[in-house]
Amino acid sequence: MRRYARTVVALALATSVVTGTAGWVSGDAQQALTGPPPGTTSWRADRVLGAELPDPERADPAEVAAFFEGLSTKERHLLLLRHPSVVGNLDGAPLELRYRANSLALAAADDPRYRSLAAPGRQILAFDPRGRGQVAEVFGDLRSADGVSVVVPGSDNDAGTFDRANDVYGTPAGMAKSLYAEAGPGTAVIAWTGYTTPVGVGVDAATGRLAEAGAGRLTRFAEGLTADGLPEPAVFCHSYGSVVCGLAAHRLPATDLVVLGSPGMRADDVDGLRTRATVWAAKDPTDWIDDVPSVRFAGLGHGTDPTDPAFGARRIPAGDARGHTGYFAPGTDSLRAFAAIARGAATEEGAAR
User: How is residue 297 annotated by DSSP?
Assistant: First the structure.
């Protein structure tokens, strides 16, 4: 009887996640974009170098990096011109080549949603126009940076809303720009919108379906950075992005996992993440995410609040952040702590309050 009562309570709480009684509203169901980059079929058939090219779906980033290492400058340039959409999204390919490839792909894209991404000087590390669009942009000199960070956003983010003018610190580009400005020289920050995010906060946001697809893409992206000779990143995961990071944690190459405004990471505690990264968590007292039940039942909900002491994450001060998207606002304690982590200079004593 006692077990039955607990089950009923858990079901009621989980149901509240998707019915709106905890502040969540319905959203449109999304189809996760998975698989290799656009243009892969032509790439696979190309024998311009006299042999098969590494399969974007099967070759791991280390194999891709080794392949490009063995090419001449002329051969690299030839592949860039023939297959910009593949080269620009090929994890493990040299970042300088990816910048140039995505510049070509964006110039050829006939879609007003992506026009701003094609502006001169932007360092676009990934661009996929399919569906709602996916993009990754670099702030700083990634090749020379001692500290690299990746920002993983939550719901309602895609290539079309990547750097929207409203709610700046809730956008991937706005969060990354702010972190880079605070962290300073010697760092680089990547705004990564490389997975299909939920729209609204309905069933997609209450389940792990999109996060599972995103976790594999995030892992491969981070592996591509290290295969290209870059440092392991600190990964900052906002809102539903923290669900992605939680599911990726056991295989994600990262020095730190920083979650903010998190509904849960699909783990009961830090040990359940099976990561060697240092795990940090922030939640401000005005964030509506605090009203979401910290449960996981029948596929709904994401489990323990990472800021709960029982979870075991190092706590980041966020008392002066405001709302669900105020963590990267200039002048906040949370942003200062994030910047220390990005520089590799954070301590538990310096972050927790």
Answer: B
Residues 6 or more apart in contact with residue 58 via CB below 8 angstroms: none
Contact 102, 124 (CB under 8 A): yes
SS3 93: strand
How many residues are present in the chain? 353
Give this prediction's pTM: 0.91
Give the separation between CA 305 and CA 259, rounded to whole angstroms.
10
Alpha carbons 219 and 2: distance in angstroms, whole number:
41
Burial call 270-290: b when 16+ CB within 10 Å, e when fewer = bebbebebbbbbbbbeebebb
Mean pLDDT lowest among 138-152, 175-189, 289-303: 289-303
Q: Tell me: the pLDDT tens digits for 293-323?
A: 787 766 787 889 999 999 999 999 999 999 9
330/340 Cα distance (integer angstroms): 14
Closest residue by Cα to residue 35 from 172, 239, 196, 178: 196
Strand order in the sheet with 147-152: 123-128, 134-139, 187-193, 147-152, 234-238, 256-260, 278-282, 314-315
Coil vs helix vs strand at 258: strand
Dihedral sign, CA of 309, 313, 317, 318? Answer: negative
CA pair distance 282, 26, nearest whole angstrom: 26
What's the rounded Cα separation, in Å, for the pair 18 and 195?
Answer: 22
Bridge partners, residue 281, by sequence: 259, 315
For 117, the token pair is: 């991404």
Q: Reduced to 3 states, what is the DSSP secondary structure of residue 54?
A: coil
Q: Note the pLDDT tens digit of each residue in 244-253.
A: 999 999 999 9
DSSP string, 17-33: HHHTTTS-------PPP
CA 155/CA 20 separation, integer angstroms: 16
Which residues share a beta bridge with 191?
137, 151
Burial class (CB in 10 A: 0-12, 13-18, 19+), 311: buried
Residue 321 · residue 165 · CB < 8 Å: no
